[in-house]
Amino acid sequence: MGAERGLLARLRARLRRLSARRVKAVLIKEFIQLRRDRVTFGMIVGVPLVELVLFGFAINSDPKHLPTAVFVQDHSAYTRAIVNAFGNSGYFRIVAANASEAEGDLQLARGDVAFVVTIPEGFTRRLLRNERPQVLLEADATDPASASNALAAAMGLARSALAHQRLAAAGVTGGDAPFEVVPHRSYNPEGISQYNTVPGLLGVILTMTMVMMPALALTREVERGTMENLLAMPVTPLEVMLGKVLPYAGMGAVQVLIILAVAHGVFEVPMLGSYLLLFAMLALFIACVSTLGYLISTVARSQMQAMQLTFFFFLPSMLLSGFMFPFRGMPEWAQHIGSIFPLTHFLRIVRGIMLKGTGLPEVAPHVWPLLLFLLVVATVALTRFRRTLDA
C-alpha cells in the first residue's frame, strides 16, 4: 500500500507541474513541422481519398458488359435472337463478328475479348427437329472470378433467348430448354484460382520490393551525410542511377527464381510459353519499377518519406491492375488510370505466357506501354538528379 501511495503522489506532482502553455508550444511546433512535411500531409489526406474513390466507385467484383465475339455459322431468325439475348443479358457486350474459329482463338489469346460465342452450322435445322443443339461459349478463364458470374448467367439464356419465337408452331415442344449452352473455360478448365493468383503475385512482389529498395538507396545517402561524397565523385547522373538500380535488380532476379520455383513445385502452375520471353519481360518490368524507385529517392527527403511515396504508388497499382479485382469490372475512367501502372500490363504478359503460351506478337500490345513508362520515368529521374549535381 505504501508503494501505491508513493506512486500516486508522484503522479499528482507531475500533473501539478503540467503546463498547458508548454503543451501548446509543442503542438504548434508539430503542426508547423507537419505543414512543412508535404509528403506526410499528402499521405494523410490522399490515402483515405484514394481508398474511398477506388472502393466506392472503381472496384466491382461482378463485372458486366464483358467484350464478346460471335462466330455464327448458321444465320436465321433464331440465331439472331440468341446473339441478341447474349448482348441484352448485361454480362456480354458483342464487339466482333468473327469469320473463323482461329480468329476467336487469337482474340482470346491476346485478351481482346473475354468470351467467344460459336453457333455451329446446322443449328436451326436441329433446333426445329427438337434435338437441342448446342451453343459453344468459350471463356478466358485465366481469371476465374471475372468469368464465373457471366458463365452462370449464360446458362439461363437457353430458356429465355427464344421465348418470343414461335417454336411450338414449328413443332418444338416440351418443357426443357430448346438448346444448350456449353461453357468451355479456356486456359484454366478447372477454374483453379492459384493459376491466376500466383503469376500475379510475381508482379505484385516485384512492384513492392523493387520500388521501395531503390527509393531508400539515395535517401539513405542524404540521411547518413554521405551524399556530399557521392556528389564530389566524377560520375554522371546516368552512372549514379545504374549503380544504384542494378544491385536491386539483381535481388529482384533472385526473387523471380524463388517465386517461379515455388509456383511450379508447390502450386503446380503450368508454364506453356517460352522461358526466354518470360525472363525478357521480367527484366523490362524490373527496370520500370526500380527506375521509379530511384525517381522517388530524388523527391523524398528521408527514408520515411520514401516509404510513404512507395505505399502511395503501390496501393492504387495493386487495386487497379486487375490483381485483386477484375479489371474489366471497373468503370472506363478507372481502366484508363489502371493502364498507366506497369503492373497492369505485366499481369497480362505473365499470365499470357504462363497460362496461354502466348508469344511476342500476342504480348507486344503490352510491351510498348512498359517501354514508354521506363523512358519517361528515367528521363525525369535523370533530370532531377542532374539538378542536384549542379546545385
What report would you give on this structure?
There is one protein chain. This protein has 391 residues and is of the alpha/beta class. It has helices spanning 2-17, 20-36, 38-58, 77-88, 101-110, 123-128, 144-160, 193-224, 227-232, 237-265, 275-299, 303-320, 332-338, 342-356, 360-390, and strands spanning 66-72, 92-97, 115-119, 134-140, 180-186. A five-stranded mixed beta sheet has the order 2-1-3-4-5, sandwiched between helices. Strand 1 (66-72), helix 4 and strand 2 (92-97) form a beta-alpha-beta unit. The chain is elongated, with a radius of gyration of 29 Å. The model has no long low-confidence stretch (mean pLDDT 83).
Write the topology of this structure.
Elements: H1 2-17, H2 20-36, H3 38-58, E1 66-72, H4 77-88, E2 92-97, H5 101-110, E3 115-119, H6 123-128, E4 134-140, H7 144-160, E5 180-186, H8 193-224, H9 227-232, H10 237-265, H11 275-299, H12 303-320, H13 332-338, H14 342-356, H15 360-390
Parallel strand pairs: 1-2, 1-3, 4-5
Antiparallel strand pairs: 3-4
Helix pairs in contact: 3-12, 8-10, 8-11, 8-12, 8-14, 10-11, 11-12, 11-14, 11-15, 12-13, 14-15
Relevant terms:
15 helices; 391 residues; 5-stranded mixed beta sheet; single chain; abc type-2 transporter like fold
Assign the structural class, choosing from mainly alpha, mainly beta, alpha/beta, alpha+beta, or little secondary structure.
Answer: alpha/beta
Strand order of the largest sheet: 2-1-3-4-5
Helix and strand pattern: HHHEHEHEHEHEHHHHHHHH
- N-C termini distance: 66 Å
Number of strands: 5
Q: Please tell me the overall pLDDT.
A: 83
Total tally of structural domains: 2
